[in-house]
Write the structure tokens for this entry.
Amino acid sequence: MSVVREAEVKWSPDQMVEVVLSEPDDFLKVRETLTRIGVASRKEKKIYQSCHILHKQGRYFLVHFKELFALDGKHANLTLNDVQRRNRIAQLLADWGLISIVSADKIQDIAPLNQIKVLAYKDKQDWILETKYNIGSKRKEQRKPNKRYGVPHPVFCICCIISSVRGEGV
């Protein structure tokens, strides 16, 4: 049996989906909801969280976990299907009134709903919720020096994200 590898997407931070929360305290609702949306292994009753909400200096981004690896400077084999699933999840959150999408044109290409599992809150205790990336759990020895300031910081700091989005470089 041969395995077909999907082509990787050439990714940059300006492709992240910026969102606006409907209510100021919706961040925790969105974060919890995202833990219940992802790719499911039905036989193991396990769901792998696909997306996270990233909050830096008043801005929010809905990102696929592989985008977070890329922001950390690690290899991330982000595929078109990963991006389409992220876009579908962003659209679901918007349809449910939890977020608004700043640039709706960034999420036009969406995956079919049958490619993701949305777990009801009442069913979450029956499933294992797995994350493949944990925001904010870096140890000091894993931090890289900032190219602009030369001090250690997480690679996905807001100065780097905003500079990259604006095309300024770091």
Summary: The two ends are 45 Å apart (CA to CA).
